[in-house]
Amino acid sequence: MTDALYLSGALLAVVLLAHLGRRKENRILLILPFFTSALIGWAALADMKPTGPNLAAGAAGLAVGVLVGLGLLRLTKVEWDDRKRAVYTVAGLGYLGLWLVILLGRLAFLYVLQESTAFQKSFGTFLYRTGIDDGGVAAFFVTMALTMVIVRTAGVWARRSRLLRQIAGEPAAV
Predict the structure, then answer these.
(1) Rounded CA gap, 36 and 135, in Å?
(2) On the CB side of 166, how many CA atoms lie within 13 Å of its CA?
(3) What is the pLDDT of residues 81-122, one digit of tens each?
(4) The domain containing residue 10 runs over which residues?
(5) Residue 151 domain flag
(6) 138, 11, 119: which is closest to 72 by C-alpha?
């Protein structure tokens, strides 16, 4: 639970410092999530047994991550500041709210799992019946978190590129 609190706090700090509000586009912040996601994903999932149920749990995390990432992207505006000749991203309270729902939901799940004997038994039964082990549970949460970051980042990158082409007077890519 302590590790989950630290990770959630770190993610929230990144969101508050790098995404929330109006931020000048930073290529390093656009590229960095791809590298960090690859490293974190490898480190977290390297020991997972690639069983069908574990892979299915990872695929479910991927699907949820895509949906949340698209939600984050929808709540992020990419704009051109003509006076400063720069691209900016704008993310407000809705963006922060979606992040908080995800982070607090994960922490609530872990808390209830740690503190409720009834939930522990139910979740244990679910894992036994489905064949998912600890690696599969980790695969769900890790792929969800990394995918939502990658989808949002890739979407911002695409919007940024489209915006810069429009500013340069080039036709939009088909």
Answers:
(1) 20
(2) 11
(3) 999 999 999 999 999 999 999 988 988 998 999 999 999 999
(4) 2-168
(5) yes
(6) 11
Task: Name residue 145's amino acid.
Answer: A
Instruction: Tell me, rounded to whole angstroms, the distance of Cα 44 from its chain centroid.
Output: 15
Q: For 128, what's the count of Cα atoms within 13 Å in the CB-facing half-sphere?
A: 6
Please tell me whether residue 162 adopts helix, strand or coil conformation: helix
What is residue 69's DSSP assignment? H
Residue type, 169: G
Residue 135 falls inside a structural domain: yes
Strand locations in the chain (E)? 21-24, 76-81, 86-91
- If one counts every other C-beta atom within 10 angstroms of the C-beta of residue 2, the result is 6
Give SS3 for 75. Answer: coil
Number of domains in the chain: 1
The pLDDT > 70 percentage for the chain reads 92
Q: How many Å apart are CA 141 and CA 108, to the nearest integer?
A: 13
pLDDT one-digit tens code per residue, 9-24: 777 777 778 889 999 9
Taking phi over 0 as left and psi of -120 to 50 as alpha, with beta for the rest, 2 belongs to alpha
137 touches 127 (CB < 8 A): yes
Domain assignment of residue 8, yes or no: yes
For residue 174, tell me if it sits in a domain.
no
Contact indicator for 121, 12 with CB cutoff of 8 Å: no
